[in-house]
């Protein structure tokens, strides 16, 4: 990694760690939310739908502020976590992952929900007449058929998490090596005299990273489509 | 043995079905589209729930609203062959077939079913690469391999052209004959039912209009508006008695009588279901002896009814009921009325290969 400066390696590594953690951590919740919205009807469903989509429309700073109030060391959730498990997430990279996950959640849920709604329920009914219980039907029929949507949701959420700025800097601040992700490092450099050249390099790295993610997801999507088309 | 007594409201449509069918063989659910046939087998399979009622198959209670029993579909062990096949698009034919198989290897034999349905060469293909008839056979195989106690078939031939229908029918007969698989067969095509079924359930407007052996229901004039465009005629079950090779005729026995038909290459002793179209039957008051017609059965008129077109349907009991269609003029000239003794004349060549169904049971 001779062609990257130590500062760039640090920001890049941190950004990847935060993005992967946020996507992996929110995946099961995203699936559950998609399933709830696509398959269930319950009172207050549109309210739940609205709350899930809130991060799309509210200023990121507001999301960061709410997280800080709730998850900070003295917040209701934060103090409970600290008292019972000794976990503190405010001003740590874990906090950055939480902020990224919350901001990316609506994108993830949206893609998964659309693909789940497109799954032919008659195929699930057929599987049940063949002796498969609900859980087996979900794993062997529903999940594989909605796989392209899961992939799309994951890639979208990953890209969103990589670019997260407002909620992150509000919730976990700008701590070098802990919460200074690529966009925050870039922002910091633009505020520094003579930082233009370094900022430009970080911008190029961000673009390359995003491109790589898109190319990789396209490749996986094509392989999936081939499998779904029923090839052997 | 299937006992059904269910009620289900679906919007404006209300299904109210009650029937019992004897064990084994093929029970046909017949009715026009919208009569509630598919709704009814969805209730049987557990894919929909009756508002109230009871469903019992072979003594196993699948649903009983009073006792609070509602077995989930995966526990019912009813194989369902859907009209659209519903093969899993992301699995090969082999994996589709194996989906319902028991993990411990008990139950239906994979190789046997694959051979019975001639789908060995399709195993590594995907559902997309199959023709309509092939898809249908794979769907049948998949349902059979789940070792069902009963097979539900929803219009298995409806989406197929004539050639594909002829391709699938023999396989359904093999299920019945070689596997002795009891089947509930939904169809709106009377040709298929007469050929395959033992018991007929006629449905109309969500209700069961009649239940009974196919032969019996087909000779009932009152059901004719329901049995529809199918060409009217008596359905008989006969046994191949022998062949007269010199004269190229085959003798079929029923109720102590013999029916002569053009030579058919069917082993002696085989049981067949045949159809005598009403328009191929003539009536005479005395038995003519200088006539080319070979089949003359003495009997008694049981029922006469007017048709819309001015012709008349006459049911004659000759040991079994035979259906004749004659003009009003003929009825008046012979002074036909219920109880009158007549002779039913059936031209041998009128019973062609098409009206000779396949074997009912192998001997």
Distinctive features:
heterodimer, A: about 230 residues, mainly alpha, MetI-like fold, 10 helices, B: about 375 residues, alpha+beta, 6-stranded mixed β-sheet, 5-stranded antiparallel β-sheet, about 35% strand, globular
In short:
Chain A is an all-alpha fold and 232 residues long. Chain A is 78% helix and 0% strand.
Q: Could you explain how this protein is built, in words?
A:
The complex is a heterodimer of chains A (232) and B (363). By secondary structure, chain A is mostly helical. Chain A has a domain at 6-57 and 106-162 and 176-227: MetI-like (MetI-like fold). In chain A, 78% of the residues lie in helices and 0% in strands. Chain A has ten helices and no strands. The longest helix of chain A is centred in the N-terminal third of the chain and has 34 residues, at 6-39. Chain A is globular, with a radius of gyration of 20 Å. The mean pLDDT of chain A is 90. Chain B has 363 residues and is α+β, with helices and mostly antiparallel strands. Helix content of chain B is 22%, strand content 36%. Chain B has helices spanning 37-45, 73-76, 93-98, 110-116, 132-145, 162-178, 190-196, 214-218, 224-227, 328-333; strands spanning 2-10, 13-21, 26-30, 52-57, 60-64, 69-70, 78-81, 150-154, 183-187, 199-204, 207-213, 233-244, 249-254, 257-262, 271-277, 281-284, 295-306, 312-317, 321-326, 341-346, 356-359. Chain B has a six-stranded mixed β-sheet with strand order 7-8-9-3-10-11, sandwiched between helices. In chain B, a hairpin with a 4-residue loop joins strand 5 and strand 6 (69-70). In chain B, helix 5 (132-145) runs parallel beside helix 6. The two termini of chain B are 23 Å apart. The model of chain B has no long low-confidence stretch (mean pLDDT 88). The A-B interface holds A 122-123, 125-133, 140-141, 144-145, 227-232 and B 45-47, 72-74, 76-80, 82, 84, 86, 88-92, 99-100, 124-129, 142-143, 146.
């Amino acid at each position: 990694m001779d062609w990257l400066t130590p500062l760039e390696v640090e920001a890049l590594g941190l950004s990847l760690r935060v993005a992967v953690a946020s996507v992996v951590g929110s995946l099961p919740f995203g699936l559950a939310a998609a399933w709830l919205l696509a398959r269930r009807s319950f009172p207050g469903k549109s309210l739940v739908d609205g709350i899930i989509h809130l991060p799309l429309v509210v200023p990121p700073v507001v999301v960061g502020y709410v997280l800080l109030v709730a998850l900070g060391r003295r917040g209701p959730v934060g103090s409970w976590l600290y008292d019972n498990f000794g976990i503190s997430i405010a001003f740590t990279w874990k906090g950055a992952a939480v902020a990224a996950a919350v901001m990316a959640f609506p994108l993830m849920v949206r893609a998964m929900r659309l693909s789940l709604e497109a799954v032919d329920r008659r195929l699930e009914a057929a599987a049940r007449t063949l002796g498969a219980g609900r859980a087996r039907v979900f794993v062997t029929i529903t999940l594989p058929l909605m796989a392209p949507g899961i992939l799309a949701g994951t890639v979208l959420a990953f890209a969103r998490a990589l670019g997260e700025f407002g909620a992150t800097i509000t919730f976990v601040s700008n701590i070098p090596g802990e919460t200074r992700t690529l966009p925050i490092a870039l922002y910091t450099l633009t505020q520094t005299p003579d930082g233009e050249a370094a900022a430009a390099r970080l911008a190029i790295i961000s673009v390359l990273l995003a491109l790589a993610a898109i190319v990789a997801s396209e490749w996986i999507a094509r392989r999936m489509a081939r499998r779904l088309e029923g090839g052997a | 043995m299937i006992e059904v007594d269910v009620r289900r409201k679906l919007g404006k449509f209300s299904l109210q079905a009650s029937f019992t069918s004897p064990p084994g063989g093929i029970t046909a659910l017949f009715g026009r589209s919208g009569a509630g046939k598919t709704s009814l087998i969805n209730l049987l399979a557990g894919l929909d729930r009756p508002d109230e009622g009871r469903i019992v198959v072979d003594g196993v209670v699948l649903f009983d609203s009073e006792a609070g029993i509602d077995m989930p579909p995966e526990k019912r062990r009813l194989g369902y062959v859907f009209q659209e096949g519903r093969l899993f698009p992301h699995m090969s034919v082999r994996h589709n077939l194996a989906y319902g198989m028991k993990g411990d290897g008990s139950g239906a034999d994979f190789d046997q079913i694959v051979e019975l349905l001639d789908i060995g060469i399709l195993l590594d293909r995907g559902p997309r690469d199959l023709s309509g008839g092939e898809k249908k056979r794979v769907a049948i195989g998949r349902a059979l391999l789940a070792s069902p106690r009963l097979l539900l078939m929803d219009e298995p031939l409806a989406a197929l052209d004539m050639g594909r229908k002829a391709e699938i029918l023999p396989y359904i007969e093999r299920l019945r004959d070689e596997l002795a698989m009891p089947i509930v067969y939904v169809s709106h095509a009377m040709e298929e039912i007469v050929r395959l079924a033992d018991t007929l359930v006629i449905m109309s407007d969500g209700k069961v209009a009649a239940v009974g052996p196919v032969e019996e229901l087909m000779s009932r004039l009152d059901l004719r508006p329901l049995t529809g465009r199918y060409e009217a005629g008596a359905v008989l079950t006969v046994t191949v008695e022998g062949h007269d090779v010199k004269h190229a005729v085959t003798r079929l026995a029923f109720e102590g009588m013999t029916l002569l038909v053009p030579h058919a290459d069917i082993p002696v002793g085989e049981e067949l279901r045949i159809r005598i179209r009403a328009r191929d039957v003539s009536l005479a008051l005395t038995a003519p002896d200088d006539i080319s017609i070979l089949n003359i059965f003495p009997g008694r008129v049981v029922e006469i009814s007017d048709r819309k077109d001015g012709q008349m349907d006459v049911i004659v009991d000759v040991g079994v009921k035979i259906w004749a269609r004659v003009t009003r003029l003929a009825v008046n000239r012979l002074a036909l009325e219920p109880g009158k003794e007549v002779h039913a004349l059936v031209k041998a060549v009128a019973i062609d290969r098409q009206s000779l169904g396949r074997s009912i049971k192998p001997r």
